[in-house]
Amino acid sequence: MRPATEPTLPIELATVCITSLLYGIFLLLFGSFVYLSATRLAPTINGLRRDPFYVSPIFIVGVVLLMLISANWVLTIVRLFDGLMDDTGELQLGLFFSDLANPTYVAKSVLYFMTALSQDTIIIRRLSRSWNHNKPIIIFPIILCCSLIAAGANAAYQLSRHTEGDRIVNESAGRWIVSAAALTFAYVDFAVMNMYAYTSPCIDEGTDRDMTRTFIIFFLVSFLARTYVASFAIEMWMQMAGISYMLVIIRLRIGPGYQRKARPIILPPSKSYNLTTVITHNWRVSVTSAPAVNTTEYHPPNSPIVDVSTNRIVDEC
Question: Which residues cross the membrane (predicted)?
């Protein structure tokens, strides 16, 4: 990925500065998310007890991203000190930072793909909830997710076998890296497109999709063009992924009452619906065009539709 004539030390120093700045922004956003979750979430909803925020999937994924991004930043600092402590000369220093088979660089590559996998996992959950747990809709994203795992594992393996003078873009490692980036792009585009198609209340203005897609395109262009910018792009990937995720969930937290505008649900008249079961799953239901409703079970009349308004708790997205 890096030519032999590349000014390695200036790029490494600039990378540390940029990634440290982005890491600090991510920590600030994560702290804001924890504070908002701990102070603004109501303990009960309609008399029903709400689960603590720290057991919600979005918080768990946030903690996982925090650990992965922190580990990546620590490895970046370790690589910098390892290179600077070696006083064998500038040539050897350049060779050290260009050694893609170095264990710290391989470990960082594994962290990149684990971060992408963590984001993909929560997107699958959001997509499933958007379509009321319709299983067929998540089959294709799961296939893409498994493909990403295979691409990431092969890329890390090929990097560990990298030899001096290899052109990573022309080798199998480069092809696996490009494949992983393309899979992530297709994954995000397909998943969020389908969530928009269902007008899910869990989606917030496409922030997650737009930031992720823009950065993936930026990385692919710079990587395939073999420019120095690719070194910055690949190092900033984890921090940008974490910032994108935190921006989405913070905007959900500071929304009015953590709830979106009610949307109608069309209920077929040939079925009966247990309203008690619906309410216990944290849905607030109000029937607007139906006769008297029993609190236990509702049988729709022979009318074309029954319009039921619902507000779903956003922290469950």
Answer: 20-41, 53-75, 95-117, 137-157, 177-199, 211-230
